Amino acid sequence: MRFHRFRPRVWVATVFVAAASLTVTTFTAQADTTGAAGAAVQLAPADEHDGADCEVGSPGSTSNSRLPDPFTKADGSRVSAKSDWRCRRAEIKELAEGSVYGNKPDKPESVTGSVSSSSISVNVSDQGKSAGFSASVDLPSGSGPFPAVIVYGGFGADTAAIKAAGAAVISYDPFAVGKEGTPRNNKQGAYYSIYGGSSDTGLLMAWAWGVSRIIDVIEQSGGSVLSAEGTGVTGCSRYGKGAFVAGAFDQRVALTMPIESGSGGVGAFRSIASESGAQPLSSAYGEQPWLGDPFGSYTGNPAGLPVDTHEIVGMIAPRGLLIMDNPHIDWLGAKSGSVAALGGAEIYKALGAGENITYWSDVQDGTHCANRSEWRGPITQSIQKFMLGSGTAPGQFRISGKKAGNLAEWRNWQTPTLTD
């Protein structure tokens, strides 16, 4: 693995029991503050996927009503060292592609484009076909080059807080890459122009592919305007689902910030199926072709899935992750979001990076995709830590008692102590 300046940290937890409308759980952590202010702290490998050389096995077809053990490999052995996670992550990646999202192709044969202070152009050629798309750029004040947060869809993200923290905003229209409102056998957009409208890859993965191609162009640009060393991604609702998948499937993303992502997003599939009022899996699958075609076999049987979203959270580890949830709208399944975040936090903990994940659903305003004052601090801290290399990560779990999940109900595995 090519992690730079990654040091094990100490995980410290404090637990509070509070009234139903208040925070019930808060995790905090001791962070490494030895880096010079403003120095780049790069927790992301230089590759989109650093486990391409791993031999990935296939687990047997077993049904499990609880969250699968993220530390058990396909061959039945358990992860015992931090270095083992690279290839375990590669197994989870293949399971998630094969059962949930559809395939994300390897890096295309050709990616070209340009970066200016106002826009990015992307041109992709692969398998004898070509397509392109563009995104707008909004720079913060000061002198660049700037790290950038790729914002899905143009709403729901606190772009003012992002810019105030010192990062540029890249406004990304995912519909240019994968359009909604199209049938599964005739999906459209730049991704499907190359890989075919009947591809079993869902829109979330197609959108993630587009994010990766934006990062390719930033890397090629020479860094005069935007820096490729600290890219973030965020979005709300369907775009929160997209941001979550983009961060999981491109390890160059230093900070992932999904907002109110609901069913098909962060929320654990097994938990969603039993959470009162949450959008059913069949509805999330049928509303738009967000999820890959293979997921259709599991909408009524999530226990048969070989993977769940706590492991997708773990695919992001040890990189920065800030999950923002809304407990006031049942449809969004925030209880299941907390279950997945708590399960994924065990992976962060095992890797010695417990403070790099934050989950926050303790908010007063129930409006969907509102900019919330409670989130402004953790957004700023996360950008400064993971994209600018200064300060400390938020490292907290602020779970609203209105939608508090209990990880103990969903797992029968224990978190190992991994050797360095």
TrEMBL record:
InterPro entries, alphabetized? AB_hydrolase_fold (IPR029058), GCE-like_dom (IPR054579)
Note the Pfam families from the entry: GCE_fung
Q: Which UniProt keywords apply?
A: Hydrolase, Serine esterase, Signal
Q: Which residues form the 4-O-methyl-glucuronoyl methylesterase-like domain?
A: 122-352
Per the UniProt entry, the signal peptide is 1-31
Q: Where is the composition biased (Low complexity)?
A: 110-119
Does S-adenosyl-L-methionine appear among the keywords?
no
The keyword Signal is assigned to this record:
yes
* Region entry Disordered, spans: 49-78, 99-119
The name this protein carries in UniProt is: Cellulose-binding protein
Q: What is the species of this protein?
A: Streptomyces lycii
